[in-house]
Specification:
By secondary structure, this protein is α/β, with parallel strands linked by helices. The chain has helices at about 5-10, 30-40, 45-50, 120-125, 140-150, 150-160, 165-185, 210-230, 250-255, 270-280, 295, 300-310, 330-345, 350-355, 370-375, 380-390, 415-425, 425-435; strands at about 25, 55-60, 135-140, 195-200, 235-240, 260, 285-290, 315-320, 325, 355-365, 390-400, 405-410, 440, 450-455.
Length: about 450
């Protein structure tokens, strides 16, 4: 399967050659050690080395010095030195002492059009690898920003004591992110597969707010953000750290496709429990403990844990660290072990059943049919060897009324890589040079195709 196919199949809980996986978002301080360990120069090269399936595209929000849409609303009050507290969730916020909803517009709300470059968004998405699942990183953390708007303690007090004020602020924050989304989604239309939004609702041991309050005050905004992304045909990935078990069904009911991450050490977030209770409702990201295992464990420990996750979730879990930010204390050798274990074939029965079938069509050059038949009555031995090396089996070619129809089955685990290997083989190239004059590609083939792939409409084993 291609990376993109594997991602969609995993999220849709369909059979896969192996579960999809995602590196996450290494923080700047972690990147040098990762590049050094894997002997590469860029994160993109690293993603190819580990065979990552997901390519993140962060919304290019211009607000120096952070240039991060997650820091787009500067609610924290400045201190005596004129600087804002970095911990903006708990620092006193702009609306700290306000209870009148009519004061919401007194905050200098930024205009997204002045901070998000439409063309830059399109360029980033268009240049992203189209064989990978391209996931926008939108965040749109309207609940967390509402906490920043007042200061967290004051926000939760306001939610209870002055609900109209709290609702006015969180609704205005939601509108800001919907406006951002409209720009980003329009710019990336046709190039984006998924989007990551979210809020941290959980602590290590439970929800930070009772479920009913989340449903009443937060989820209406979540629903609007989900519906907007869905209107662009995107898979919606919702992030929340911590123990969020009581609202997982709610999140799926809002239309969210997959929940990120499974924070492995949080209460009631064990993979076994989530698979049993919600495996038919939606899918998950994460699962590989980033609090202890990836920091203090050995590569063998990591591999064993990934094997365990693959047994629990043969599909329906995009395997990744249990926190999207890969921090400097995570050992690069443990990241390598994670992805090595993801690619292991530890379930031959699943692999056997995941044989992929391909049907293709091409025209025959007038007057060349007999030459083509003669060539294929004695295919060069090294060409046949390369076909088998690239995991193609049960390969047949049929002819009818000026068209050739091919059928084969692929039994490997990286179709793109095997096809590239075949295309780079000198003997295969010489064989194609001999055969191509006998062939006429169909006019409605996809860009880059010679033989045009056909859609399978029925199959019976």
């Amino acid at each position: 399967m291609t990376h993109r196919e594997r991602f969609f199949a995993t999220v849709q809980r369909k059979p896969v050659d192996r579960p999809a996986s995602w590196l996450g978002l290494p923080v700047p301080a972690a990147i040098p050690n990762l590049l050094k360990h894997f002997k590469v120069n860029t994160i993109d090269e690293l993603k190819r080395i580990i065979d990552d399936d997901v390519y993140p595209i962060c919304v290019p929000y211009n607000n120096p010095p952070t240039n991060d849409i997650g820091c787009s609303l500067a609610f924290a009050k400045s201190g005596a030195d004129g600087r804002q507290d970095e911990r903006t969730l708990t620092a006193p916020g702009f609306f700290e002492d306000m209870t009148d909803p009519s004061l919401v517009e007194t905050f200098p709300w930024p205009n997204p059009e002045e901070h998000i470059d439409f063309n830059k968004c399109r360029e980033l998405a268009k240049n992203a690898p189209d064989d990978m699942a391209r996931m926008g990183i939108m965040w749109a953390a309207h609940f967390q920003d509402s906490c920043s708007a007042f200061g967290m303690e004051n926000a939760l007090i306001t939610m209870m004591a002055y609900p109209e004020m709290y609702k006015a602020v969180i609704d205005r924050i939601t509108k800001f992110y919907l406006d951002c989304g409209e720009i980003f989604y329009e710019a990336t239309k046709g190039y984006l597969d998924a989007v990551l939004i979210g809020n941290d609702f959980g602590s290590q041991s439970g929800l930070m707010v009772d479920p009913d309050s989340i449903r009443k005050y937060v989820f209406p905004g979540t629903k609007a953000l989900v519906d907007q992304a869905k209107s662009y045909g995107l898979v919606v990935v919702h992030h929340s750290c911590g123990s969020i078990y009581p609202i997982i069904d709610d999140l799926f009911d809002l239309g969210i496709d997959t929940i990120h991450p499974i924070q492995a050490k949080a209460k009631d977030m064990q993979a076994e429990k989530l698979s049993a209770d919600f495996g038919d409702h939606g899918s998950f990201f994460g699962g590989v403990d980033a609090q202890y295992l990836l920091v203090n464990g050995t590569p063998d420990d990591v591999k064993e844990d990934v094997r365990r996750l693959k047994q629990i979730f043969p599909t329906g879990l995009v395997i990744s660290p249990s926190h999207e930010a890969v921090l400097p204390d995570i050992k690069p050798e443990n990241i390598e072990a994670l992805f090595q274990a993801v690619k292991e074939d530890n379930n031959p029965k699943i692999e056997k059943n995941m044989k992929r079938r391909y049907g293709q069509v091409i025209g025959v050059t007038p007057g060349k049919l007999e030459e083509y038949k003669k060539l294929h009555s004695a295919v060069w031995p090294k060409v046949l060897e390369m076909i088998k090396e690239c995991h193609l089996e049960n390969y047949s070619i049929y002819y009818k009324d000026g068209y050739l129809f091919s059928y084969y089955e692929y039994t490997g685990d990286n179709y793109e890589a095997d096809m590239a290997k075949m295309a780079a083989d000198p003997e295969t190239q010489r064989w194609w040079d001999v055969c191509m004059p006998c062939q006429q590609p169909v006019p409605n083939r996809a860009e880059g195709e010679w033989w045009a792939d056909m859609e399978e409409v029925f199959h019976l084993d």
